Amino acid sequence: MYRSAQGDPGEDRSIPPYGISHATVASTVTTPRSSNQVTAHDYASPGATQFATFTADDMALLHHWTYVASLTITDSERANVLWQDITPRIAFEHNFLLYAILSSSALHLAHTNPSCTEQRLVDAARHHNTALQGFRHHINNMTEDVSDAIMACSYLNVLYVFGAFGRLGDLQVDAARSSARKSQILGADLIAMNHGVAAVLGPLYPHILQGPLAPLVGIGNWDSINPDELNLRGDEHFRHLRTVWAQDSSVQVYDDTLHALRRSFVFVGQSDDHLQHASETCYNGKWASPGIWIHVAPREYFELLSQRQPAALLIYCYFGVVLHGLNHYWFMDSWGRNVVEVVDEILGTYWSPYTQWPRRVVGLV
Q1: Any residues with CB less than 8 A from the CB of 28 and at least 6 apart, and which?
Q2: Which terminus of the chain has a lower count of CB atoms within 10 Å, N or C?
């Protein structure tokens, strides 16, 4: 769920401090635990939603998140505060979010430290699965006090899908799993995840807008973008796709989907200064664009994509171009290239006049 730029309701709000007293710290240091374990209860307020045990390695992952990984999610220093400080504070109240943070931290290490990639992927998956268990529990027992944690966890779940199934996903595939890998690249998990985020956050939206993470649902200048007025370089290739479905019974679905994708292309292609000037509330920056497109495109389009209709596949191939524009984010690494490569393989040489430009953009030719 996203919102238009309508000011910044979360700008001056903060989460109450969680008050780790000197006595608590002293007792934690002087009281030994087996296997160097500490518990979230020691560092949480009385309102923590579950009791959980974390190892010293988990604490190292939390430290890595605080000082390194949280600063790599967006290009905005103001957004860093939300991911670096505010989100962990919320996680100390709702431990399923803490597991999502640990998962994201491990995933970042898997990308940036080749010597521990395999182990950190295991750690990321383990913490991700634990986070999902708590996430689903709170979805089924929805209360307003957990809305911020649900939203932050939803976003980190999307980040996990990108980070685990992008470049690193290529390292984990053998011949037996190649078909499932293609489905992942064509959005089997990503599309369902984004639609799920919108469904989950919808009822909580009014409460989220009053909370400290309200800026994260901003969409910047998306609503004001009209690709027909901008004549952005490369847009002519997108427009040329219309010739593919001119006589198709689903022409309106394809036209609407393509128009949204062209807006996404403009959104990603604009300068950082322009995006920041357009809206200080768009804290997720450009990588919000894929989620916005999936959210606003007609649901009928994704049904056509699941049927592997050529026109739907071609649009998704050009979605790969948009994703490639976000390749500098570690969790987006190789996604655009993989999408274009898989679609081109499925469509074959007959459609190569339409896939040639995307292949050239992502470096396949």
Answers
A1: 38, 42
A2: C
Q: How far apart are CA 289 and CA 222, in angstroms?
A: 9
- 48 within 8 A of 92, measured Cβ to Cβ: yes
Given the structure tokens 């049927």, which residue do they identify? 307
The label of the residue with tokens 């064509």 reads: 186
Cα–Cα distance for residue pair 65/104, rounded to 1 Å: 8
CB neighbour list of residue 283: distance below 8 Å, 6 or more residues apart: 74, 76, 78, 79, 82, 215, 216, 218
Consecutive 10-residue averages of pLDDT for the chain (365 residues): 42 33 28 35 40 87 96 83 94 96 97 92 96 92 88 92 81 59 84 82 84 82 85 92 96 97 90 51 67 93 96 98 93 93 95 97 94
Domain boundaries, the chain: 32-215, 222-362
pTM reported for the whole predicted model:
0.81
Q: Residue 22: its pLDDT value, please?
A: 27
Q: How far from 356 is each of 67, 268, 340, CA to CA, in Å?
A: 42, 21, 10
Question: How many CB atoms are closer than 10 A to CB 82?
Answer: 23
User: Helix crossing, 188-201 with 147-165: angle to 10°?
Assistant: 170
Separation between Cα atoms, residue 325 and residue 337, nearest integer Å: 10
Amino acid at 45: S
pLDDT at 132: 94
Dihedral sign (CA 210, 215, 216, 222) = positive
